[in-house]
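Sample intake — Aminotransferase
Collected from: Lactobacillus leichmannii
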Amino acid sequence: MPETDPNLRDLGNRNLAKIAPSAIRAFDEEISQIPGIIKLTLGEPDFAVPDHVKRAAIRGIEADDSHYGPSKGKLALREAISKYLAASRQVDYDPETEVIVTDGATEAITATLLGLLNPGDKVLVPTPVFSLYFTNIEMAGGEVVMIDTSDTGFNLTPERLEAEIEAAGDQVKAIMLNYPCNPTGRTYSKAELTALAEVIKKHHLLAICDEIYSELTYDQEHFSLATLLPGQVILISGLSKSHAMTGYRLGYIAAPASLLPNVAKAHSFMVTCVDNIAQDAAIEALTKGLDDPKEFKAAYQRRRDFMVDNLTKLGFEMAVPQGAFYIFAKIPEKFGSDDFAFAKDVAKKARVGLIPGSVFGKGSAGYVRFSYAAADDKLAEVVKRLGEYVAQL
């Protein structure tokens, strides 16, 4: 094993050193060593990629589709994304200049923030929310302004947004919205987004909208802020959740052309271009597989209802998820409010893996996140184990 030259041991990006690693991944790895544990920790669909999408990837391999492609993505895929967004969001994005194919939605978020933020720019982030946003804003030199929404059903209100903008001052440049939301499963209605849009438009904010779970809404149709404010929205999505293609790493950005040059530059410096075979599969998914998510959504809704019903009986409190595949549940009062201690104890004694709520920002302490993207029999076993755990205490 090589020994580092002593003169090199102090090397390292000091700004990056200040940022903690992913707490979700770290906690998942910590409890993964427990024998027989059932993990509801990661947002990983348990379904297989649809067969016709897999066959499209195979055809690409057989056709030797193995050379560098355009940095922004294959034009055929950008055209498919543009057509899909025109039908679902009623916004016409030029596939040549207003769509970028990325290495998953994660890279889309990273490239967007690196391309558009300057040091000291403040970004409003309603919480609880996926902690990746915090670290990526900080990596880009921005400042995170968390907005605790735990007292308004985990949705941001226009009144609260107005107050936070006033308090944060002139350096506020953008707001990040994730809907349906990880970890709460909550989303926004057309009326709620219309009210928020008035405030965002008034203050000329950039809205970065992560809509990766948009195909998985249960009780209402997904509505996008881009439909209302196309000139102020960076729309980010992908196929990881809708088509269970997490390993394909296929995401995209859609936005007005004038906002994208630096974003495209950051993207090209990070990944050059996205894997051709993943793009071949994505073209198939977005041209012939738009109905594929319906089967997944029906299963997730059934699982949601099962978990909400049973967790409520066990003493957990939650806002019923309207989309995605997470439940963000308040720990029963008798267990206290230390969500890390609770999650570790449940992992050890009940052999059930959950994510402590505190990793998701303000308003998250005392909660745990359940991912119900797991087979029905596993969820039934989780409920059984948790029931025994609660009964013992």
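Post-analysis note: The chain is about 40% helix and 15% strand.
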